[in-house]
Amino acid sequence: TRWAPMHARRPACKELRERVARRPAAVAALLCALVFGCAVLVFLAVRAERLDDYGSLYVSEHVWAHSVSSMDALHVALADSQVTALEGDVLLDNEGVAIMAHPPDRVSDLTLADFLRSIVGTGKHIKLDIKELPALESALVLLNELMPRLHPHKQRVWLNADILPCVGARGEALDPDIFIQRSRSSCPACQLSLGWKVSVVSGVAYTAADMERMERILTAHALPCETVVLALSARVLALDPSVLADLLARRSGCRALIWTGTGEPPLRVQTYNMLRRVLHERRVLHAVGFDVKLARSAIGGVFADFLVSFASLSRTLLGDWSPW
After folding, report:
1. Would you give the end-to-end CA distance of the chain in angstroms?
2. Model pLDDT, residue 202
3. pTM metric for this prediction
4. 239 and 205 in contact (C-beta within 8 Å)?
5. DSSP labels for 237-279?
């Protein structure tokens, strides 16, 4: 998630100040929670964390450049020989041109056309995170034009979208039927990455019903599990990882990618270990990949979790302002 420019954030800051002025008791409660949280942070930080090994772990074959939403970011990613795949969000600007930008931004110096054409022939793979259906149409037109030039270099393309809503999520999910039908008919060589619209500060876990709805969509569109990757938030999944384990146990061949978003605080190693342990015990770890940013230290991990918890409490008391 990219922060909006300062001039775009001023109305939101003014609104937040007004909310604070109207709710002094809530602000006092947040300050108390902050002090208490810092004390807990100091206490827990002395606990050492390490990576545990639970059998085979699918390790991504790619080194990703995430949130490529500017010309500068594109040039850096293309110049880095270690980067094997580039990912970015796609939406339309105010003039209807497909650009690489993260909502709510509608301004970028990098168009989708420039993004794709710059990568052709480099051998690097592409993942487009589609944020709205009109942007999908623009992407499919460009991909139809460029696919014959991507294939000789064995460059793969993933189309990602949040097609199902979860409780507590901000924004609307894309229509699953339209996204899947248009993607498959216009770009059959593209691989699909399907996820849920979530908020990492909502405190709401994925449910068995969420998994069943995704399964019904896969069945309705006759999508073989081997051709689809299910994308799940690490922090949301950590609230109840058994639901994913149940789905993977039911549908042999399904794959999942567990992620942390750009700009999201890093994940505690303890949380990462817990997810791996549960999936290993259910014998589905081999079908799961991790694209997560881990905290570099125990104190950093605890502090990151505290930030998320504080944002969740603030959201409850003051309304939705968190960028995650």
Report:
1. 7
2. 83
3. 0.79
4. yes
5. HHT-THHHHHHHHHSTT-EEEEE--TTSPPBPHHHHHHHHHHH
